[in-house]
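Workshop exercise sheet. Pairs work together: one partner reads the sequence aloud, the other fills in the structure field after running the prediction. Swap roles for the next sheet.
Pair: D.N. / O.F.
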Amino acid sequence: MSRSDDLVGPAVGEGQLPSAAQPAQWELLLHQARSARLLARLAQQFRDTGQQDRVPAQALRHFEAALTLAESQRRALQWEVHEIQRALGPLPGPVVLLKGAAYVMAGLQASRGRIFSDVDVLVPRAMLNGAEAALMLAGWHSTHHDAYDQRYYRQWMHEIPPMLHNTRATVIDLHHNILPLTSRIAVDATELLAQVVPIEGWPGMYRLGDADMVLHSACHLFLDGEFDKGLRDLCDIDALLREFGARPEFWQQLPARAEALGLSRMLFHALRQSIRVLGTPVPAACLAAVSGAAPAAPVLRLMDAVFARALRPEHASCSDAGSRMARLFLYLRAHWMRMPLGLLLLHLGRKALRGEPTAASA
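Structure field:
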């Protein structure tokens, strides 16, 4: 399997597109981009770079339709954030938007053509119960009512069970940290909250600091274990690095912040894979600053091989005999990093008994 099997990574990262005389390649790019949830992002890129004329008319209609959907989601998100602001505004402490919601409300480049299915919010842990109660009064209710699921989220994870709105069916993931309480890598959430940035025009609403946004995205991608949106999430990291990296001091701040939070290994993987897949321009000095966090050479070769397969569109044209094994390996690795062995065996055993899918069956 060669990188050329993936048409989406080169198109997003380096603007490499099929020629107009290759309709079969354009059709394949459409299918791959749709499976990777990057159809709208490519459409936005075509607009931004004036490449619409290079896109065959039939294909362009699909891209533009996806962008229309993304713009509709953006408007819907702004309303949801308004309702969250009304619900949580009276509470003491910051309300921090994460991931896609933060990108959109802060007007970051990573939001352009970004699609998402829920709103991620971070509050101080001491404020968690009050925030959940306020959201319930505003129309959201808890999901995952099974007793084990409730214990799993509330005792071990970094968030409570997802909350679903009674009428709009929108979902909020309410966090108190960016990594599980049981994780082998611990992050002090108070350190994150100490450097949050106000969102202009939205009193009481915040986002993480620039470096922390990159580090959170890296944790989400490389420690979550679900790679069906892996390339999309890597594109988020690429967009954040390109935008924040316009400030030269950012490249000194990023590795220093990763070390302070204990996330240097995650940053190493994020930078390495973003460069390999998307051609992200990262200064050599920044790479050198995180090189000490690299795993041993044999482990690094293994991780490069599995990431090369997992960070592709989940489409038959990008898969080989090792793709399913690579995703299974990363799924198990993520759970190993998130839980001690006894809890991990209990959790995976319950999932198997309940017939829930894993990365191996994706």
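Discussion prompt: Strands lie at 95-98, 119-122, 140-142, 163-165, 171-175, 197-198, 205-207. What would you look at next?
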